[in-house]
Write a structure and sequence with these properties.
Layout (H helix, E strand, L loop, with lengths): L1 H41 L4 E2 L7 E2 L7 E10 L11 E7 L3 E10 L6 E10 L4 E11 L12 E7 L2 E8 L5 E11 L5 E6 L10
Parallel strand pairs: 1-3
Antiparallel strand pairs: 2-11, 3-10, 4-9, 4-11, 5-8, 5-10, 6-7, 6-9
């Protein structure tokens, strides 16, 4: 009788421990995906021009999407075209449309313009043909990755560059972008922080 009670008690203890272990696993299985998602977001690369020695070609997903996060100094409007801090260059084989989702932090300052120009070089000078510009309202850290804006852009055949103008001031900014190329076959390459042409290179 005593052996039977002990045996039953052992089985009951094993059952309780097994259920507790499975319960812990189930709770962890609910938490882990969220933690993984959070880690994916927090571990996104921040590409800084000071740390990046060479231009970097970005890969496009199968559905024509490129994502990036950058930080830099915006150069004032009066900066020469060849000295502007462009953070992205899109080489298009043909004219094409894209969609851009973006969020940014201008550290509480206002007066910035997000611009996209067609860059044309010849032996004498560099010219920028404006394709798109939009005023960026004063945003700070609490808006970053919380408030997203969407716009459509038309790119022309050739090198299309993206940069931030600081109007009459220079200030730091960070920006995350998700660019969808609606006709990805028309894109030759996407380059992060393309090489700038300084006056000494002319």
């Amino acid at each position: 009788m005593i052996k039977k009670m002990v045996k039953t008690g052992v089985y009951a203890a094993i059952l309780i421990l097994t259920l507790a272990f499975v319960g812990c696993q189930n709770r962890n299985s609910k938490i882990n995906p969220k933690r993984a998602a959070d880690n994916d977001i927090n571990s996104e690369f921040v590409y800084t021009q000071n740390n990046l020695k060479e231009p970097m070609e970005l890969e496009m997903s199968t559905d024509g999407i490129v994502t990036l996060e950058v930080e830099n100094l915006a150069k004032p409007d009066h900066t020469l075209p060849e000295e502007k801090s462009s953070f992205l260059s899109v080489l298009a084989k043909e004219d094409t449309d894209i969609s851009v989702q973006y969020t940014y932090n201008t550290y509480g300052k206002e007066g910035a313009l997000l611009c996209c120009d067609l860059k044309e070089n010849n032996e004498m000078e560099t010219k920028l043909e404006p394709l798109f510009s939009t005023y960026l309202s004063q945003f700070s850290e609490e808006h970053y990755k919380d408030t997203w804006l969407t716009t459509g852009l038309f790119l022309k055949k050739g090198e299309n560059i993206f940069y931030l103008n600081g109007k009459d001031q220079t200030f730091p900014y960070c920006m995350a972008l998700k660019i969808t190329f609606l006709e990805s076959e028309k894109i030759e390459k996407v380059i992060l922080y393309p090489k700038e042409v300084s006056s000494s290179d002319k």
